[in-house]
Design goal:
19 helices, binds adenosine-5'-triphosphate, 13% strand, binds magnesium ion, five-stranded parallel β-sheet, 16 strands, 455 residues, alpha/beta
Length: 455
Amino acid sequence: MENRLKILIVDDEANLLKTLSDILQKHGYEVSVARNARVALETMGKGAFDIALLDVRMPHMDGVELLERIKEKHHGLEVIVMTAYGTIETAIRSTKLGAFAYMLKPLDIDEMLMNVQKIVKLKALREEARFLQWQLEEKHGYKNIIGKSRPIRHVVETIKKVSSSNSTVLTIGESGTGKEMVADAIHYSSRRYAKPYVKINCAAFPENLLESELFGYEKGAFTGADRQKIGKFEVAHGGTLFLDEIGDMPLAMQAKLLRVLEGGAFERLGGNDLIKADVRFIAATNQDLEKMIEEKCFRSDLFYRLNTVVINVPSLLERKEDIPLLIEHFLEKFSTQMSKKAPRLVDETVDLMMSYPWPGNVRELANAIERATIFCEDGIIKPSDLPPNVREGHVGLPPAHTSGEHTLEALEKRHITDTLRRTKGNKNEAARLLGIHRETLYKKIKKFNIKRPTV
Ligand SMILES: Nc1ncnc2c1ncn2[C@@H]1O[C@H](COP(=O)(O)OP(=O)(O)OP(=O)(O)O)[C@@H](O)[C@H]1O
Ligand SMILES: [Mg+2]
């Protein structure tokens, strides 16, 4: 059998070696023996063991010293120390050095077998945890962030550096650039990967609801609070809280959030107990927070608290060389989902996709590929399979003579208005075409005061 656990027994007593190895073998373990520490180290150098049973008193090098040597070199090898001359000191030292158990001689064989069983379970759990982490990383880790351009490589490098720390991270970038993906990658590459990962979209709640979502409340805190509710801060304890669209957090909430960021403690609404939560924060925004500070819509103290580490996620326009890779990635992804053979793009389609400015960034590109994969015929994506705006290179740019409308905001308003007109006022469809969330579109419609388009 290949998967049998390998045990090494080290003892200078021949009788004990014999008895113990017979018993362990009978229980299905693969056993090797060594009469002293030198032979033990040699044997361990030749093959990997799972468990070592060490006697303490042996000539030349005692078991505790051997334990120390083992722990330096052989990670994952669990050690049980056994001695006939038990002292508190050796027991403490062995435990400190990382022994799994400390047993007195004469050995209680049942206890020994139980300890070995416990190690077997521990190893299985560790393996499972490793597999889980591997799976999570595979799905959400930074390896999924496609791109070889300089700015995206810089993003990935920063993720690798910050994920091992607990520092607050602010990700900034246009809509659809992959800010949430960055946050996911940080969480799943961090030590907190198996702990809760909680996300909240600050734009999706009116002020008072956002507060109770984050802090939770006690029964009776307000009319309708008929039971206690645990807030996101508490749920995220030990893990990571992703505050999406932080630029949309109302000012009063910003002050409360700052308090939590600084002290790590808060109260539930209507409660008096100070609750401590160990949470790592990642925030994201597509807004210009510094401009918002000037306009007094964002607190500067919160901004400085959040921007310890800033990750600027580049727009697709800044990394056009990644477009072919992304096309390939999404072709593969969607065709697999649809159980189709991945279609091919004719050169003209690629040219159009390379020259289109992708205001909705990767999300817009992904949508275009998904749509083309559905509509294309004979496994070939022609320009006519692309969404009309991509096909026409049309992003609502105002004609040159309407000068005075060249600010980014004016262009954005114009593009949204055009898209709404094209979708005959259908906001869901417009949001999809624009590659932004529906809530974001609603906010922009309000902000720019866009009236129902006259079709
Ligand atoms: N570099 C990338 N490689 C592969 N997929 C990406 C990349 N960047 C973004 N995506 C995909 O694009 C979509 C949008 O990404 P994400 O939701 O992270 O963007 P966002 O910046 O949070 O957008 P918004 O501001 O609208 O919330 C997702 O489906 C994501 O998987
Ligand atoms: Mg997002």
